[in-house]
Each structure stands twice: as structure tokens, then as C-alpha cells.
Amino acid sequence: MYEGIIVLILLGFTAALLRVPILGSFLALFHTLVHENGHVAAAKWTGGKAHSVSLFYNQSGLALTSHQGKGGAVLTIAAGYVFASAVSVVYIYALMMQWYTPMMIVLCILLLYNIMFLVKNIVGILWLGSVFLLIGVLYANQAYEASVYVLYIIGSTLLVQAFLSSLYVWKMSRFHAAASGDAALLEKATGIPAVFWGFIFFGQGAVCFTAGTWMLVREGLPFL
């Protein structure tokens, strides 16, 4: 019971931080990066190409991809929310297993790959550079405990933002379908209403958020 309350406070605090100017955008871009890389991965896996990724100050992003056939296009468009939610659960599992060093290595590889091959816009490059700087400072000062806190902040951000973004796209698909992003693109590609895709995105987001929260409650937070 106590652990559950602490976890809910942590996730609620994370949701509040995401609304703080500047800091909220900085944190939310971790989710945006994963979301856009989901599009990139799906495009490549289906025989298409990834041209660039842009990250924006308003917490949004854009992946420019090309596809081979309608099926590849549909899978690429659908991949962003699903990939981000799945990664948030895998990330939380890795935290519970205390795989801190491998996680930091994977994070650095992801950042390096994006800054070298994908991200082209100034905001995205500055954000990636600032994250690299933060990791470098932690490494230079051998701040292991602080690194663990950073990993947990990123993890809670990925989990919360994946859920909130899926909730947002479902809301937009119901009331402003044309502005519902990936759901609107899927409606255009498949003819199936955006509200259907919005509901699918929200459903998988809710399931993954529940799974991640359950793991946090069951295993507890090692630094408490």
C-alpha cells in the first residue's frame, strides 16, 4: 500500500513537471524522440527509408519517411504511439532489474545515432547536445547515484508521457479529427475513421501505463 502511494506520487509529480515551462519540454522530448524513432524503425523494417527527424520546443516531433506500398505506410504511421508505449514498459522493466549501466549505454547510442544520422533541426540538435552534456558531467564526476536518479526521471517521463499523448490523440480524434496527427494520417491512408485509431492508441497506451505502474509498485523504488 505504501509503495503504491509513493509510485502514484512520483508519476503525478512527473505529470506536473511536464507542464513546467522549459523543463517540461526538455523532459517530454525523451518521449518525442522515442516516438519518432518508432516511425523510423517501422519505415526501415517495411523496406522504406527514413530521411530525417525533427524535435520541437512544443514537445512535438516529425519523422520524414518514405515507404514501399500502402501496408508499409500504414505500419509506419501507426508505429509511433505503439513503439513509445512499448519502450516505456521495457524501460521500467530494465530499471526494476537495475540494469543501469547497459541502459545508459543504450541511451547514449540512441542519442548519438540520432544526432549523426536523423535529427536535422536546431532545436533537436541543441536538445541532444544538452543531454550528452548532462551525461558527460555525471560520468566525469563519477556521480553513479545521480545517474540512477536521472534514469528514473527519464523512465517516469516516458511512462507518463506515452499515456498522456495517447489520451490526447484519442481526445483530438473524437472532437478535432483533422488535427489528430497520426490518427488523421491513418484515416487518410485506410479510410477508417480517425476516432478508431485514436481509441486503439489510447487503449494500448493505457495497458502499457498500467503494466509499467504495476511493475513499479510490485518491485518498489530502490532509493527509498
From TrEMBL:
A Pfam family matched in the record: Peptidase_M50B
UniProt superkingdom: Bacteria
Keyword hit for Membrane: yes
Parts of the chain that traverse the membrane: 6-30, 72-93, 99-118, 150-170, 191-217
Record's keyword terms, sorted: Membrane, Transmembrane, Transmembrane helix
InterPro entries in alphabetical order: Peptidase_M50B-like
Record's protein name: Peptidase M50B-like protein
Organism: Sinobaca qinghaiensis
